[in-house]
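Hi V.,

You were right to ask for the full record rather than a summary. Here it is.
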Amino acid sequence: MIRRFRSLPLRSRLALLVAAAVAFGVAAVSVSCWFVVQGKLYDQVDNNLKNGSGRVRSGGLAGVLSNCTTTPSQSTTDERGPQRPTYYTQVINTNGEVCVYPSSAGLVKVTGSDTEIARNPVRGILHNSVDSKGTPVRVLTTPLITTDGPTGAQLIPDAALMTAFPLKDTDKTLKDLAVVLLTVSAFGVVGAGAVGLAVARAGLRPVDKLTEAVEHIARTEDLTTRIPVEERSEDEIARLSRSFNSMTSALASSRELQQQLIADAGHELRTPLTSLRTNIELLSRSEETGRPLPPEDRRALLASVKAQMTELASLIGDLQELSRPEKGQHTGKAQVVEWQDIVETALSRARLRGPELSITADLKPWYVRAEPSTLERAMVNILDNAVKFSPEGGTIEVALTDGVLTVRDHGPGIAAEELPHVFDRFWRSPGARALPGSGLGLSIVARTVQQAGGEVSLTPASGGGTVATVRLPGAPVPPPGETAVEGA
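Predicted structure:
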C-alpha cells in the first residue's frame, strides 16, 4: 500500500492526504457530535424519568400491591379522552416478581441490578432494558417509598419501583442524525479531495515549470534557460526557482570557462608542440639522408628541444593546477604553515634562476593555514615573475611583515590599462610574449591566495617597476595545540 502510494504523482498524493486529513477531522467531529447529542437526549429522558418517579411515589401503592397484576391497562382517560400510556411503572420484590401499575405502558424486563435495589435500597440506578415486546426502554429503579400511611413518607422494605420510558423516538433521532452526519462527511471528504487536487495543481504549477525547464536543459543542453520568478515572492517554490536559475548560470559560466580554458590551452600548447615537431623532423631527416648536422647546430637543436619540453611540462603542470576545483577537494590538506619559511624556500629558487640579480629579504614570522605545496608554488610564481622582468643587475626587494608580503622589482612595470587582466588565465602583456611562460603563473597565485582567505594585487611602484602584495590571515605565533609545518 505504501509503495503504491509513493508511486502516485505528487498531485494525487497531496489530494489524497488532504482528503484523508479532512476525513479524519470530519469523522472526529461527527462522532463527537453524535455522542454529545446522545448524551443530551438521554439526559432529557433521565430527567423525565426522575420527575415521573417522584409523582408515582406520592401515593397509590396500596391499590397496586393489594391487586397485584402483570397486565396493565391498554389506555388511560384524561380531559383529551382515551390516551395510550407513555411511561412504564411497576413494583418488584427481591425475587423479581412484578406488580404493574394500571397506567403503565407495558411490562419491563427485570434485571439483577433492579432486584439488588429491592434488597439494598440505598440509591436508584439508570440503565437500558426492553419491555415484554422487545422495545428498548430507559429504566430508573429506585427504593419504594409510599406516602399513603398515617406517618407520611415510609420506605417499603424488599421492594423497588421501576419507572421506564421508551427509547424508540430517541433511537430514531440518533439514527437520523447518524445518516445526516455520514452524508455530510461523505460530501465533505469528496469535496476536500477535489479542493485538494485543485490546490495541488495550483501550488505545483511552478514545479511543473521547473520540471519542464530541467527536461528542456537535459534535452537541448541549453543552459541559458531561466524560470520566471516574482521578485517579491519568498516562498519555497520561489527560492527553489532562484536556486535553479543560479545553478544554471553557474553551469553556463563554468562551461564558458571550460571552453575558454580548452581553447587557450590548445593555443598555448600548439607553439611548443610545433617547435618540437619541427626540430625532431629536422633531426630525423638528417639521420635518414645520411647528412648529419654540424655538432654546434645539433647541440643547439637539442637544447631547443629540451627547452621546449621543459616549457611544455611547465604548461601541463600549470593546467593541472588550474583544473583542480575552486573550493575544497585538493590533493593536499590545509595546515598551519610557517609562511616565512615557504618564502625563504621560494627565494632560494629565485636566486638560482636570476644569479645576476640582487635579491634582499626581510621576513618576520607569520603562521597561516594553507596547503603547503600550492602556497609554495604561488610564492615561486610571484618571485619568478619579478626575476623575469627585472633588468640585468637589478634589485628585488622582498618583505614579510604582519601577514603582508611585498615583492618589488625595478623592471618596466605594468601599464594601467593592463592591470585588470594580470590575473586572467593565459593573459600576457604585449611586452612579455617574447619571454618564456604560459600566462598561468599569476592565475595560480590569485587562486591559491583566495583559497587561503587572502588577497593579492599588483600595483605600479614609485620610480618604476611593480609591487606585488599578498595578504594572508594568520598570526605571528602558531595556534595553541597545533604544530606548524616548515617550508620545504
